[in-house]
């Protein structure tokens, strides 16, 4: 998971210090080293100097603020989020809930344009904002995956990014809106869970938040692109709290391959001494397994070699 640094001028702290930060404007070899270390140790890092246009981010954020401020009956026109659209409190298909509402969309130009008609009174405006955002975070995703491939000494430097650029890529975009939960002065209310603990099943997540605290990550757990890297990278377990006095909003791009893509370790990360830990499977099989389980469940065990 990669977190975009806040736009300049909006520099409040959103997380505890000490999380790995990668300045993408540094020397390429330094950037690669930092990314590989962060993927192995945390499965999470923050990027600065990522080059994503502040206006592109703000346009989609403004559209989302406008959408979430509508009356429930209007928002429900875009729902339920099964599989895509507007969702409120219900997460996934197996009874998970959270204190949030959200939009879950396919990150594909045509789907976004069609879906926009139920989301906005000005669908062209919404779909332009969403498509521009998707295009720029997708570019960043591909740039990071190329750096990852290079850091893993993979011969085909675009082997990972090609999966995201594929027109059939199953990438998603999600905008979460956590309304403020007013804390009682001097009271010690239990923390309200906005989105429960889980790890994302996709290859890479790019997250951008509106600078309101809430995201928490768990250290040293899970796997990230686990099969492709044969367990070398970790997928961070994370959750979001909704206990601040402010409304939190986050926008995620989940980079995924096409449904029929076969997933197995990159040849460069296996050897006779380090054999494949997982049976090959398709993204569709893995996604199906993830979606049939609860939010916090782990799913990779299902694909371990005997
Ligand atoms: C986590 C990452 C993405 O938000 C998501 C989520 C999906 C959903 O909200 O429907 C899942 C969750 C996510 C993982 C396990 C399953 C599926 C909810 C859930 C209980 C859209 C995704 O692809 O997987």
TrEMBL record:
Gene3D superfamilies named among the record's database cross-references: B-lactam Antibiotic, Isopenicillin N Synthase, Chain (2.60.120.330)
Keyword field: Iron, Metal-binding, Oxidoreductase
Keyword Oxidoreductase found: yes
Keyword match Protease: no
Residues of the signal peptide: none
Chain ranges of the Fe2OG dioxygenase domain: 168-257
One Pfam match: 2OG-FeII_Oxy
InterPro entries in the cross-refs: DIOX_N (IPR026992), IPNS-like_FE2OG_OXY (IPR044861), IPNS-like_sf (IPR027443), Iron_ascorbate_oxido_reductase (IPR050231), Oxoglu/Fe-dep_dioxygenase_dom (IPR005123)
Highest taxon of the lineage: Eukaryota
GO MF, one example: metal ion binding
PANTHER family membership: 2-OXOGLUTARATE (2OG) AND FE(II)-DEPENDENT OXYGENASE SUPERFAMILY PROTEIN-RELATED (PTHR47990)
Family, similarity comment: Belongs to the iron/ascorbate-dependent oxidoreductase family.
Listed name of the protein: Fe2OG dioxygenase domain-containing protein
Source organism phylogeny: Eukaryota, Viridiplantae, Streptophyta, Embryophyta, Tracheophyta
